[in-house]
Recover the amino acids of this structure.
């Protein structure tokens, strides 16, 4: 006779079903983002196209895997709730969830770390972010090893909390550093010049796109720590399991929002009326920016065109560097 479920087990399974539904919804949003990227950003560099392709494959694999878990949990084991509740400990497919979470999290954050370098030009911050990402990857690998041996042991919770904490620290550091340097660059341009709306839009996109993933990562981290301390186990397991399912899709959504917003930011900047400084009128892009140094930012339909401090220093004090985008 099939065993019945306790109220705690019912809450956990219900939370997993809700998280899987959210995962499928976010995958639909990601498919729209991938399609938009393919249609608009045709002039992107090869490495950026490969990054988006890899992200599309990983998120699709993640959704297929979690739908397989839902099929087994709600259909194959429908008549045996006890077996459904222990599915995550006995079957290999549910155990792939933290594996894919680790891969997608580090994969997306590596992109943001690469993006931080041309914006900040601060090698120390970039190195700290790389160390945090490497630590998150290693601790995630160790946690995943325990997933296939003893998923409900304290060692799994310990290493998973370390992984989530390192990933969260790297995320907050990269987001904060990116926003800080963009804000600092915005102070050096004229408020009504062509560069100001671009920088202001980039600051908004950086914060808005990073906030949902950072919040989900924080909730996931707190839930795993509570599980480690044996506090409010049913609620912690429900929240931790659900946020761990949704987190990779939120990171992917954040990266695609950042990439797809470039064209909109460029078009908004083009709508602003401004005049080139007399020294720049009649010059080509190559003449104007040929001797540039220290790029601040990149933007333009997928192609990286750089605003340079070197050119800005040649202009009179009351003028502003103009971005040849």
């Amino acid at each position: 006779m099939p065993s019945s479920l306790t109220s705690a087990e019912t809450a956990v399974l219900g939370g997993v079903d809700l998280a899987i539904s959210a995962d499928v919804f976010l995958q639909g949003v990601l498919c729209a983002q991938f399609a938009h990227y393919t249609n608009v950003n045709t002039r992107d560099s090869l490495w950026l196209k490969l990054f988006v392709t890899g992200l599309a494959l990983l998120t699709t694999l993640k959704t297929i895997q979690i739908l397989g878990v839902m099929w087994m949990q709600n259909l194959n084991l429908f008549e045996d709730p006890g077996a459904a509740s222990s599915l995550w400990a006995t079957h290999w497919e549910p155990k792939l969830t933290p594996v894919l979470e680790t891969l997608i999290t580090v994969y997306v954050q590596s992109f943001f770390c690469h993006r931080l370098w041309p914006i900040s030009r601060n090698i120390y911050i970039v190195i700290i972010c790389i160390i945090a990402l490497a630590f998150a990857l290693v601790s995630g690998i160790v946690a995943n090893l325990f997933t296939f041996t003893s998923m409900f042991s304290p060692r799994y919770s310990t290493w998973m909390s370390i992984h989530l904490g390192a990933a969260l620290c790297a995320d907050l550091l990269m987001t904060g550093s990116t926003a800080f340097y963009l804000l600092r660059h915005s102070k050096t341009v004229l408020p009504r010049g062509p560069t100001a709306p671009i920088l202001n839009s980039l600051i908004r996109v950086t914060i808005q796109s990073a906030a949902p993933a950072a919040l989900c990562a924080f909730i996931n981290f707190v839930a795993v720590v509570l599980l480690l301390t044996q506090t409010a186990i049913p609620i912690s397991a429900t929240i931790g399991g659900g946020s761990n399912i949704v987190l990779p899709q939120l990171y992917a959504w954040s990266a695609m929002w950042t990439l797809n917003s470039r064209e909109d930011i460029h078009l908004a900047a083009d709508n602003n009326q401004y005049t080139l400084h007399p020294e720049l009128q009649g010059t080509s892009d190559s003449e104007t920016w040929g001797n540039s140094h220290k790029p601040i930012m990149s933007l333009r339909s997928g192609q990286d065109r750089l605003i340079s401090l070197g050119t800005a220093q040649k202009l009179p004090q009351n003028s502003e560097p103009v971005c040849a985008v």
Remarks:
- The longest helix spans residues 233-270.
- The beta strands are 295-298, 306-308.
